[in-house]
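Bug: token stream looks shifted between consecutive jobs. Job 1:
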Amino acid sequence: MISYEFPLNEKVRTLLRLEDLFARMAHFTELDQSIDHHAALITLFEILEVISRADLKSDLLQELERQKRLLSGLHNNPEISEQALEGILTEIEQASVYLLAMSGKTGQHLRENEWLMGIKQRAVMPGGTCEFDLPSYHYWQEQDAALRRESLLSWLAPLLPLHIGLKIVLRLLRENGKTFHFTAHQGTFQQMQGGRTSQMLRVRINRELACIPEVGANKYALNIRFIAANFSAKSALFEHDVPFELTFCSISA
């Protein structure tokens, strides 16, 4: 099965983007080649761009506090594991502590580093970080992998509370989903929402089906079109029936 996640609001969209970027950053940082660490640094700049567009710290703190209140009300519920409940409440509490400890504007330590900002400015140009453009960056890339990794981790460290917080929120969102099985007849599916609100949809289809879902949704209707996986031609509807699994994910409010 191939799983596709479609955010239905800007907050979840931002969290999913950051989740992907933090995972990519971790992957490239763990490798040893200078080209891998270049990819990690470019990813760090992308993280900085995303967190600059929203008050992410405040949003995460508010969401974590809301979930803490709701989950606290589940104590003594016979259908809920007290051990599991205490575990997630402890995680939420610790994540909130880390977020509250973040001082100043998020990512300011990167913006105040003139050397990094010089690389960031050149990185948006095709081939702009060649050694003749940025000899000091070339010098850094020629250092031992352990030294480069130490630099990358030190630049990333002040942003990690955001990663810890968003992982909890997305986990709760994914776990609080209702799954249904449908068939898109001749590649199309429509369902009236009836006022149902979700924050994210997850579509899972058999990977042997050569098609890709496109989702359009509002509080009134949900539309899914399955497009033929043809990477060299104009997109066209996959004109066959497509059985798929649809999960409506909505974090408790």
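Job 2, same session, no restart:
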Amino acid sequence: MPNRLRFAPSPTGDLHVGNARTAVFNWLYVKKYGGSLVIRIEDTDRVRSDSRFEDLIFRDLKWLGLDWQEGPDCGGPFGPYRQSSRTAIYARQAEVLLEKESAYRCFCSEEELGRRAREARQAGLAWKYPGTCRRLSPGEVARRLADAHPSVVRLKVRSGKVVFRDLVHGGMQFDSAVLGDPILVRSNGMPTYNYAAVVDDGLMKISHVIRGDDHLSNTPRQVLIYEALGWPLPVFAHLSTILGPDRARLSKRHGATSLKHFREQGVLWEALLNYLTLLGWAPGEDQDEILSPEELAAGFDIERVSKSPAIFDAQKLYFFNRHYLKECEPSRTVEWASDHLRQEGLLGEVDSRVRQWVGLVVEAFLPGLDHLSQLSGKVPQLWDFEAERAVQDEGVRQVLSSPGAARVVEELNNQLSLGKRDVVREWPSIVRSVKAGSGQKGRKLFHPIRVALTGRDSGPELDKLVSIFEGGSQLELPRRIKDCRARSSEFHNAMRSQELSRIH
């Protein structure tokens, strides 16, 4: 039997890292051992399901670098691939179970069952459905149906042990006596999760079910449904829960963890794919943690997945992202940054000259970024140069308090004021002249130059900023960028007005 795996999300919200990790492990298994990956949309919750979330799921999976062979978007031999389109299939299989007397109709009202459950809890007892309607005669069932009494379809759970093997957790055994007779089809005709999942997996010939261990408690009921239908069991593998750094279940208090968030944050898909694979799985001893998708697939082994909870640490993800940002083709980061800066209102139409200039910006700031959206906090210094405010900054004033700093600023202003200069091309010569005129070198030379041109006491490499200032001043941007001459002049005047030039 060929390998057939499935990822079955519900379109009730954004795709988060827990579900994404499940999708990744299914994908890796197919890449490693061959076969088909099926995407199935479990949308029987009609109240919460929304087609826009379905669209977002597909977008996120494709962005993450995953592909599949069957699904609502591409079809396949075992469709339809949305549960909301398969209600007739579930009804037919329920009739099969009723005819085999492996299931029965239950007419107990929700109110009655709820009352019994509350009474049991108040008495400190565990409660399960007592099988009341199991004992109804065929004639009584027919009479109640003829009288239009609402009913559900329940599985007739056999006695004894429910046994199955899990690739992560090993041999599993449950006593069916604690399960009760689960509902398969509700009174409104909609299937329950456990029933629909089994029918879909069985009819779609799914060979391996890889999913989160929050479904482990569902598996005994599903095994019983497989048995009742006379279908072979798939191979099960239940992945460990993902926790936050505080070892509590991952939730909103740990910050946003949706793929949409990380995509919009400027995390590269390769970094997230690499990191998600390591949540519960470790490469071989001779392998590094940073692995390409091809290397991840080649080394993947589902039986090496840990059953201990995995810890999601955003800072570790950003460690991976910094690596992939450095290795990334510049055109990708430039495209992302151009879109981002345009949304911030800092860029207008992006032509070849603007794109080339954005490339300089990305090159300058990239070494200090965990993710690309941090550009928003870095690039304001390109536009927001206010010399009067800058000289009030404590760090700037400390630089200017150094002996000879004021002289460096004066010499820089003198050099930049000497006619019309190609500052970028002549920058090394300008610096040498400032050095000679001020008698300063090293930090005592470059720190005053930096504060005079940027208004800050730290930042990217100065020669790169000079190219950015000069190039940006020649572009028609929504907000003007001042060139080096204007910056130096303004800063020199502000320094003199504050009498900072008299500190030494």
